[in-house]
Amino acid sequence: MSAVERYSTRLVPPQSRQLFWREVVAEAFPGMTAHAPEGIKAELARWSLGGVGFARARSERAQVSRVVTEGEERHLLLHLLHRGSMTMIHGDRSSMARVGDVVIADDRHPYAIDISQFNDCLILQVPVSMMGDDIAARDWHGCLVPSTNPHVLFLAHVLQGLWSQRDKLAALDDDAGVLLADAARMLCRRSVVDRPAIAMPRSPVDYALEHLGNPDLGTALICEALDLSPRAVQKSFFRHVGLTPTAFITTRRLERAAALLARDDGMTITDVAFDVGFSDSAFFTRCFRRHFGVSPRQWRSGQGGSLLS
Fold this sequence. Notes:
- This protein is an alpha+beta fold.
- It has two domains: about 5-190, Jelly Rolls, CATH 2.60.120.10; about 205-305, Homeodomain-like (Arc Repressor Mutant, subunit A, Orthogonal Bundle).
- Helices cover about 40% and strands about 20% of the residues.
- A seven-stranded antiparallel sheet has the order 1-3-4-11-6-9-12, with helices on both faces. Strands 2-5-10-7-8 form a five-stranded antiparallel sheet.
- The model is unreliable at about 195-200 and about 305-309 (pLDDT under 50).
């Protein structure tokens, strides 16, 4: 069993915290990139028990996104929310978790998570190979299991008790990881995973996700389509994802572009830019470099790997 590793931005100069937090998240969760404001206050502690990763992340408002990473062992990540809220956005669906809920992610799929202010989350990272063939054969990505589910309550009790005593359990046998995998498997087997095509009620955020490829998408178009005032649209975006409509739309377009570029299926960079809703490939390249730190061409060639592994 590994020792607990701890990371915090509090000892880092404010102007360097954004980059430091990005590097911490990328190292802890390969394939994941953090998008945080300069000066963010955040901390991560992680522990490994017999192949099962166990982490606790506390953060001010931020976003994280994952692109598909080939060659890595497949994991399910169970996010147990202890404080705040989080919205997992995957394709055209969104799953919003509140205190006590569990939302499941599959690291073989791209997704993004919007994290609320003063967020506190326990994260269990379980190799699918430890959970049995029946679990491996089903799609768990984006599954939200509410706090009222007794198997969530059981898992929460186990994780919170184990975490609170972690400093006294340095000699705990690695077989504890098997027990955690069993608890995760039990929760999955007793959870409903059938989901409608759009999991959330129609809202300004839903509309934006459905129409990202439209270059005219913006506050004015959303207002017209949903018969809402600009103020109502702005408030809805900030309440649900903590971003302005423009920032949210740009971020989601860039994340979709990153996933398309990583596939390298013959689309040109201009094709990708137009496919995700940009009408100017030069502007797309500038936005991509500002967001990910590398150009689209460098990302496609793998030179952006330092941000992802």
